[in-house]
Design a protein that fits this description.
The structure is a homodimer. With about 300 residues, the first copy, chain A, is of the alpha/beta class. Chain A is about 40% helix and about 15% strand. Chain A is built from ten helices and twelve strands. Chain A has helices spanning about 1-5, 15-20, 35-50, 65-75, 95-100, 125-140, 155-170, 190-200, 215-225, 260-280; strands at about 25-30, 55-60, 80-85, 105-110, 120-125, 145-150, 180, 205-210, 235, 255, 285-290, 295. The first copy, chain A, has a six-stranded parallel sheet, sandwiched between helices. In chain A, α3 (about 35-50) runs parallel beside α10. The longest helix of chain A is centred in the last third of the chain and has 20 residues, at about 260-280. Chain A is elongated. The interface of A and B includes residues 18 and 36 of A. The first copy, chain A, binds a DNA duplex (16 and 16 nucleotides) through α2.
DNA sequence: TTGAAAGCGCTAACAG
DNA sequence: CTGTTAGCGCTTTCAA
């Protein structure tokens, strides 16, 4: 041993991997890296992984089903030990994922998940969070609340829409389908244009609940440009607590979605499975729910007591 | 071959790596993932890497010299084929990097570099870009321009400071050291507090050139709060063209620093070296300069013709 | 307790 | 041109 360290011996990672059938590398598949929420996820995953001696390969799906399949295959072909995956918005069929799990590579889903796959997951309760967000708008006096939602298929967009609807029902506000605005890309521009349509269709709207902060920011900037008072005439509620929500004028009230923590939890679940597999223990699927909370800022009015 | 594909044969990546002494994995070391500029870098690197069949392991230094050393070692121990590195702000000594290069793992520096290491680099001309930014403020009528700079040691902060100073000289504006504000973390909060100090020390300042958009945004938000007219009383110039600079009120004039492209170029340089090494060709160091440009927005006045 | 050897799965070299 | 084999460097097993 002394000789080894005096010669500055370092074991060869390839040979170790070949022999032990493990790489100490995991894959992290993300829809889009440049989104603030997802870069927080990456941060959490990388930090907790490195605490356990794992490295992380990152790939993006850019919301494409084909890319999701391709990136998963790349990771499996490299014999990584496990995968953290957030589904692309285009993914509605899950055989490619189930197959990988069946072949022995554990997958943990986070954020954008599906009930159709039996595996560990890290989620937030989107329905509850959207309910709370909408309820908050109602409690600040809003009565005609538009919802700028995302694409039809993903579970998150469905759940947040459902939560919105449920809050209206609970407070006896009639649901009006023409107040629902569908956006495809969940981009700043989508929000920007949605704002115009909302005003055109419903000049008397007094609140907007957007699917995510980026969209909410688009709405906010456009309403500002059009001289609409925020929150006096129209209140805006975002979702995710992106960094930018702190610096809009007025600052954006939003739902905090703790990406860093979700990243850490997701790695933890994967690590546990890896551990169980190595020790020949039965693998326990776990579903961890991370809690959200409303961050009151200045795009909404005071709650009426 | 038919039999192989009918049995769905996939070569074992561990054995391939062991045999060929290459992993087709590269390492990317980044100061802080959650910064918009760096997530663009990641995006560019991952995309161009995957075009050539390479995967990317990402690690952060969080501006710590110790972490930089540690992360480099982790990558080398995993036998990755090469490393893309942006120096931490605390790194002033480069032996750990030179040693890795000497032992045969190619390193390409990007963004935060040093002249002391002889290797391929992707840079912008910080001095020129800062000169242009300051010149732009002068041409819009500013005469008393504060500079919120970063830490003393990194080359980028030095170069941008030098460019600022040079522009003042060129336009016969006396340099005043009390207009230089040092920030340690280059954070939103740093800018926020700097704004207060600037006003306190120099109520007649008419322009602020900040080291980066995050700092500029902090300045902008605080000046807004204090009722200062932007750009009428004080103009603000950022640096990097982060996404958030588009959505501040007023929107922030800034210098576009093309992260995505820099990421692509950096991978390209590394790939070329890898190629040259494999073919036994002499390795050519290259220094690629990516051009920047000013993005005029509403935190500055019109250029006086 | 220490030491030797088999084998992980591939590729490149070499023999037939 | 096809088929066999050595060896990459490690770990684990088995023998001494």
């Amino acid at each position: 041993m002394e000789l080894a360290s005096s010669l500055n011996y370092k074991p060869n990672a390839f040979a170790q991997s070949l022999r032990n059938q493990e790489s100490k590398i995991i894959g992290l598949i993300i829809p889009k890296i440049v989104h603030h929420f997802f870069s927080n996820i990456i941060d959490g995953v990388i930090n907790s992984a490195s605490e356990q001696g794992y490295l992380v390969i990152i790939l993006q799906t850019e919301e494409s089903y084909e890319k999701e399949k391709k990136q998963l295959q790349l990771l499996v072909d490299k014999n990584i030990d496990g995968i953290l995956l957030s589904l692309s918005d285009m993914t509605v069929q899950y055989d490619h994922i189930k197959e990988i799990i069946n072949q022995g590579t554990p997958i943990v889903l986070y954020d954008k998940i599906t009930k159709s796959i039996d595996c560990s997951k890290v989620i937030i309760d989107d329905k509850k969070a959207a309910f709370n967000a909408t309820e908050y708008l109602i409690k600040t006096g809003c009565r005609k609340i538009a919802h700028v939602r995302g694409p039809l298929k993903p579970q998150t967009t469905i759940d947040r829409f459902t939560g919105y609807k449920l809050a209206l029902e609970t407070y006896n506000i009639p649901f009006d389908n023409s107040l629902i605005y569908l956006t495809e890309n969940l981009s700043f521009e989508d929000g920007y244009h949605a704002a115009e349509k909302i005003l055109e269709d419903h000049p008397d709207v007094d609140g907007v609940f957007a699917f995510t902060d980026l969209v909410a920011t688009g709405v906010l900037v456009r309403l500002n440009e059009l001289g609409i008072g925020i929150p006096d005439q129209i209140s805006i509620m975002g979702f995710s607590n992106w960094f930018l929500s702190k610096i809009t004028s007025p600052s954006l009230t939003t739902v905090d979605q703790p990406g860093y923590n979700m990243g850490r939890k997701a790695f933890k679940l994967l690590y546990n499975e890896l551990h169980q597999i190595k020790n020949g223990e039965p693998v326990r699927q776990e579903i961890v729910e991370v809690s959200t909370k409303i961050i009151p800022r200045n795009s909404t009015k005071q709650v009426i007591q």
